[in-house]
Design a protein that fits this description.
The complex is a heterotrimer of chains A (189), B (419) and C (287). Chain A is mainly alpha-helical and 189 residues long. Chain A is built from ten helices and no strands. Helices cover 27% and strands 13% of the residues of chain C.
C-alpha cells in the first residue's frame, strides 16, 4: 500500500502547509523514501494532487452512498450527512482542509485531468442522489441543483473553515442538530 | 326498420321510418363515445397535441392542426413563420388526399356495384402517408405541429422527395381515376366534357346517370365552410348565393337522446360541410357547372370530393416552391405555458369538412375542451320537421340500399363524430 | 391455404387499421391471409354474420380498449371476443389500447393488462396471445408477427406478451440525434436538426421498448428524427402526463435509460458534461 501511504502523507502536508509550499522532497522525508521512488508512483506533484482529491471524493462518496441507501426519511439523511461531514472534519481534518484549501483554492493545479467536477464525481453523484430522492419523495422542494448544493455544502464548508480558524467556540458536534434542522427547513417543500 | 351500417370508420345505425313504401324519416344513431373531451380535462395543454390525433385514425392529422391552432389562439403576440404555416397546410393536404382515395375506392366503388380495388386505395394513400412522414416523422399519429411552428427542420432533399411523391400520386390518379390534364380539369366549365375521358370516376358517374341517381341525395343545397387557408375560402351559401362573413359564435351544439353524437347548427340551421361545400364557396368552375345541372345530388357530392384530389396535389406542388428553408421552423411562444390562461379556437378544413376545436386553459392546464367534427354537421340527428342534411337527403327514397349510398356519399367518420 | 384473420374493433380510433393499410406488401399479404372480418376493407362476412354465426377463424385480432358495455347495434363486443378467443388458435392484441388500455383506459382495458396490472378475466387465453403494442401499431411489426405465427416460428415474448424481436430494442436505438445524447449536449431547440430531446423535451425513447428508429415509420422517418419526442406509446403507462416535458427532480431526469442505474447515469453524465465537443456545439451544416 505504498501508494496510499504516499497519498496520506502528502495529504497531511498539503493540508497543513499548503500546496506550493510542500515539495516532493518534503513528502519523501516524511515517509523515509527516496524522491525517485515517489516519482515511480506519481509522475508529478500535480498528478499526486489530483489522485488525492479523487481518493477523498471516493472516501466521502462511499460514506454518503451508505446513507443514501438507508430506508430513512430525507430529514434523517440530512442529519446523517452533516454528521459524517463534521466527523470527518474532526477525525480526518486534513481531508476537509485539503478540499477547501487545496482543491478549491488552486484550480490551476487540477485543470489538466481534473476538469470540472470529474475528479469529485463519486461525491457529487451521491449529493445529487440525496437531492433527487428527496424531491421524488416529496420532502424537498424542486429547484435548481446548484442553488441547493451551494446552500448545503457552502454552509458545511463554512462551518469547518471557521472551526479551523479557531473562531467557533464549541466542538463541531455541538452544531449538528441546529445545522441539520436549518438545512432541512431551507430545502424542504 | 333498423339497419346497421358498418365500415364508416366505426358503425352507426339507421332507423328507417317508412310511410306508403317511401322513407319518411331516418334516425341516425352512433353507439359509443370514448370521452376524449373528458380525457383532456386537467391535463397540460400541450398534451392535447398527443391526445387529439387519437380522435381518429384516418383524419387525426386534421385534429392535430386544429388543436395547435386553438392553442396558439390562446397567446397574444405569438408568431409562426410562413414556412411553418406552409408545411402544416401541406401535411394536412396530404391527409385529405389519402382520405378521398380511400373513400372512393373502398366505399363508393363497391356501392356502385364495382369490385373493391383495395390496392387502388392503399397505394396512393401510403405514398401520401410517406409524404407526411418525411416532415412529420410518422403517419398516422404525429404531433409535430406545436405552438410556435413545427418541430422538424427539413432540407432540400426532403422537399425533393415530397415533390416526387406528389408526382407519383398524380400519375396514379391520371392512370386510374380519370386521365385528365391537372390544370384544365377543375377549370373546365362543361360537365359533359368529362365524359370524353376514361377512368374509374367516369365509370361511377356513368353508373349514377344510368340508374337515375343524379336526382337522388339532394338536401338543403346549403353549404358552409368555416376553415380558411391558402386554398380554401370560408363562407356560406344557399345554392349559389354566397355570404362571406362567418361568425363562430353562431355555432351551437345540442345533445340528442339516442345517439352519442351531438347535433350542430349555424344560426339555428343545418348546413352541409365537405368538399362540395368548399367547391361551392370557392366557385370551382367544374363543380359549379355540375351543381347547375345536378344540384347537391350524389353526383355532385362524389364529383366534388374526387375533384379535390387533383386540386390539392397541384396546389401542394405550388406551395412547396414557396417554402423558404431559411426561415425558422419554430419560434418560441412569448409566454411560459404555466402562465397561459385563455380561450382559443382552431378551425381547419378536414377531409370531410369543417373541424372546430375550442380550448379553455388556466395556468397551462386544460379546463375544458370542445370538438365539433364535420360528420356532426352532415349527420346530425334532426327531427321530421327539421332534418339534418343527410337525413333530408335520404327522405323520399324507396330503398334502404339507395339510402345507404346517399348516407355514405357524405363520407362518414363514426369515431370522429362521437369522440 | 390462407390463414383466416378476424379483425375486431372495440373502443378505438381505427389508427391501427389505417396504419396497417400502409404496409408496403399488402398484395402478397392478402395472398397469404384472408380477413373474415375487417372494419374498413371488404371482408368475407358482415359484422352481423360474425356475431350471430360461428365463423371459422384462425387468428383473432383485437383493436381498441375492451369495454364490457360496448355494443354495436345489438351486438355485444365482449361476447364476440369471448366467442372467437376460444375458437382462434392465436390472439393478437393490435395497438396499445387492446394491449394495455392505452388512450382509452378510462373506458376500457387491454385484453390481459390494464397498464401494468395483470387482469383476471381472460387469463385462460394468455398462452395464445401476442401483443403488438404501439399507438398506432407499426404495420411491419404486425405483418411480420402474423407471418411468424402462420409459419409456426417460436416467437419469444416479453412479460407483456410483446415479441422480443421488436420490443427488446429501445426507440433510442438508431435515433439520428444519438451523439447529442451521448455527449450530453442538452441544449435542444425545436425546429433544429441538432440536439437531443431527452433532457428537456420529454423524450421517452431511452426507456421505451420499440423499433421505431430501427425499422422507421412509413419506411422513411421517425418522430425523434423529425424533432419530436417519443411519447412512449408502446408502453403500459401510455399516455403519461406532461408529455412534452422531462420530469426532473433537482435537475435530474426521473426516468433514466432502460437498465441504466442512477449512479452510472449520473457519473457518465457528469463526465460528459465537463468536456465540450466543438463539432456538436455547432450547427450540423452552416448556410
Amino acid at each position: 500500500m505504498k501508494r496510499e501511504q504516499i497519498m496520506n502523507a502528502a495529504l497531511k502536508l498539503f493540508a497543513k502547509n499548503g500546496f506550493y509550499t510542500t515539495t516532493i522532497p518534503d513528502i519523501a522525508k516524511k515517509l523515509n523514501m527516496s524522491v525517485g521512488n515517489i516519482y515511480n508512483y506519481f509522475k508529478s506533484k500535480d498528478i499526486l494532487a489530483q489522485e488525492i482529491i479523487k481518493y477523498i471524493s471516493s472516501y466521502l462518496g462511499e460514506k454518503l452512498k451508505k446513507i443514501n441507501l438507508e430506508k430513512i426519511s430525507t430529514k434523517e439523511k440530512t442529519k446523517k450527512i452533516v454528521k459524517i461531514y463534521f466527523q470527518t472534519a474532526k477525525n480526518q481534518p486534513e481531508m476537509i482542509d485539503y478540499f477547501l484549501r487545496v482543491y478549491l483554492s488552486n484550480r490551476e493545479v487540477f485543470k489538466g485531468g481534473c476538469e470540472g467536477m470529474i475528479c469529485i464525481n463519486e461525491f457529487m453523484v451521491e449529493i445529487m442522489i440525496y437531492f433527487e430522492e428527496g424531491v421524488r419523495a416529496g420532502e424537498l422542494k424542486d429547484q435548481d441543483f446548484f442553488s441547493a448544493f451551494g446552500l448545503f455544502m457552502g454552509y458545511l464548508g463554512g462551518m469547518v473553515f471557521l472551526k479551523g480558524e479557531g473562531i467557533l467556540p464549541s466542538d463541531l458536534d455541538y452544531y449538528i442538530e441546529d445545522i441539520s434542522d436549518n438545512i432541512y427547513k431551507a430545502l424542504s417543500k | 326498420m333498423i339497419k346497421l351500417i358498418e365500415k364508416i370508420e366505426g358503425e352507426a345505425s339507421l332507423d328507417f321510418h317508412f310511410k306508403d313504401e317511401v322513407i319518411e324519416f331516418v334516425d341516425i344513431n352512433f353507439f359509443s363515445t370514448r370521452g376524449i373531451e373528458d380525457i383532456l380535462k386537467q391535463r397540460s395543454v400541450f398534451d392535447a397535441l398527443v391526445i387529439n390525433p387519437r380522435v381518429c385514425g384516418i383524419c387525426g392529422h386534421a385534429h392535430l392542426i386544429a388543436t395547435v391552432k386553438a392553442i396558439e389562439d390562446c397567446y397574444d403576440g405569438l408568431f409562426i413563420s410562413e414556412k411553418a404555416k406552409i408545411i402544416r397546410e401541406l401535411t394536412l393536404n396530404f391527409e385529405i388526399i389519402q382520405n378521398h382515395f380511400k373513400w372512393f375506392y373502398l366505399t363508393i366503388m363497391p356501392l356502385m356495384g364495382f369490385k373493391q380495388y383495395l390496392l387502388k386505395a392503399t397505394v396512393p394513400s401510403s405514398i401520401a402517408a410517406k409524404a407526411i412522414a418525411t416532415i412529420a416523422g410518422q403517419y398516422p399519429h404525429t404531433s409535430y405541429a406545436i405552438a410556435g411552428g413545427v418541430t422538424s427542420d427539413p432540407v432540400y432533399s426532403d422537399l425533393v422527395k415530397i415533390e416526387n411523391y406528389l408526382n407519383e400520386i398524380m400519375n396514379f390518379f391520371k392512370k386510374n381515376v380519370v386521365d385528365i390534364d391537372f390544370e384544365k380539369f377543375t377549370n373546365c366549365e362543361d360537365v359533359n366534357s368529362i365524359f370524353r375521358h376514361r377512368g374509374d370516376l367516369l365509370d361511377v358517374l356513368l353508373k349514377i346517370l344510368e340508374n337515375g341517381w343524379e336526382k337522388v341525395g339532394k338536401s338543403y343545397d346549403r353549404f358552409l365552410v368555416l376553415g380558411e387557408n391558402s386554398y380554401f375560402m370560408s363562407g356560406k351559401s344557399l345554392k349559389t348565393i354566397l355570404r362571406e362573413n362567418i361568425y363562430l359564435n353562431k355555432i351551437a351544439e345540442s345533445e340528442n337522446q339516442n345517439s352519442y353524437a351531438k347535433n350542430v347548427t349555424y344560426n339555428k340551421r343545418y348546413y352541409e360541410v365537405g368538399p362540395l361545400s368548399r367547391a361551392m364557396i370557392k366557385k370551382t368552375p367544374l363543380v359549379k357547372a355540375t351543381h347547375r345541372r345536378y344540384a347537391d345530388s350524389v353526383f355532385s357530392r362524389i364529383l366534388a370530393r374526387v375533384c379535390e384530389i387533383p386540386q390539392l396535389l397541384n396546389h401542394s406542388l405550388k406551395l412547396i416552391k414557396r417554402i423558404d428553408l431559411g426561415e425558422p421552423s419554430y419560434i418560441k411562444p412569448p409566454l411560459e405555458i404555466g402562465s397561459l390562461s385563455a380561450e382559443g379556437t382552431g378551425v381547419v378544413e378536414a377531409a370531410r369538412g369543417s373541424l372546430v376545436h375550442k380550448v379553455f386553459v388556466k395556468e397551462g392546464v386544460i379546463k375544458d375542451y370542445r370538438i365539433i367534427t364535420p360528420t356532426q354537421w352532415n349527420l346530425s340527428n334532426g327531427t321530421r320537421d327539421k332534418p339534418a342534411p343527410a337525413q333530408k337527403a335520404m327522405m323520399g327514397l324507396r330503398s334502404t340500399s339507395l339510402a345507404e349510398l346517399v348516407f355514405k356519399s357524405f363520407d362518414v367518420c363514426s369515431v370522429c363524430t362521437t369522440h | 391455404m390462407k390463414t383466416k384473420l378476424l379483425w375486431l374493433s372495440s373502443l378505438t380510433c381505427n389508427g391501427n387499421a389505417h396504419s396497417f393499410l400502409n404496409y408496403h406488401e399488402l398484395s402478397l399479404f392478402l395472398d397469404n391471409f384472408e380477413f373474415i372480418y375487417h372494419p374498413i376493407i371488404d371482408s368475407s362476412y358482415t359484422l352481423d354474420d360474425i356475431a350471430k354465426k360461428d365463423i371459422e377463424c384462425d387468428i383473432l385480432l383485437i383493436e381498441g380498449a375492451i369495454s364490457k358495455e360496448l355494443k354495436k347495434g345489438d351486438i355485444s363486443v365482449i361476447d364476440m371476443i369471448k366467442k372467437y378467443a376460444k375458437k382462434a388458435y392465436r390472439i393478437v392484441t393490435v395497438g396499445t389500447c387492446a394491449s394495455f388500455g392505452g388512450m382509452f383506459k378510462n373506458k376500457g382495458e387491454g385484453l390481459h393488462f390494464l397498464q401494468e396490472r395483470e387482469l383476471e378475466e381472460f387469463r385462460y387465453f394468455k398462452d395464445k396471445t401476442v401483443s403488438v403494442s404501439g399507438c398506432p401499431v407499426h404495420p411491419e411489426v404486425l405483418a411480420d408477427t402474423l407471418y411468424m405465427i402462420k409459419r409456426g416460428y417460436d416467437i419469444k415474448l416479453d412479460k407483456f406478451l410483446r415479441p422480443k424481436e421488436f420490443f427488446s430494442y429501445t426507440v433510442h436505438n438508431g435515433c439520428t440525434r444519438n451523439e447529442y445524447f451521448e455527449y450530453k449536449i442538452d441544449n435542444h431547440n425545436y425546429g433544429e436538426k441538432e440536439g437531443c430531446l431527452f433532457y428537456d423535451h420529454g423524450c421517452q425513447a431511452p426507456y421505451t421498448n420499440g423499433s421505431c428508429n430501427k425499422i422507421l415509420w412509413n419506411e422513411v422517418n421517425s418522430k425523434t428524427r423529425a424533432g419530436l419526442a417519443c411519447f412512449g406509446c408502446t408502453q403500459p403507462q401510455f399516455p403519461k402526463e406532461n408529455l412534452f416535458f422531462t420530469k426532473k427532480n433537482m435537475g435530474i431526469p426521473q426516468y433514466l435509460p432502460l437498465g441504466v442505474a442512477k449512479r452510472v447515469y449520473l457519473t457518465l453524465a457528469g463526465i460528459s458534461k465537463t468536456f465540450k465537443i466543438e463539432r456538436l456545439e455547432k450547427k450540423l451544416f452552416d448556410d
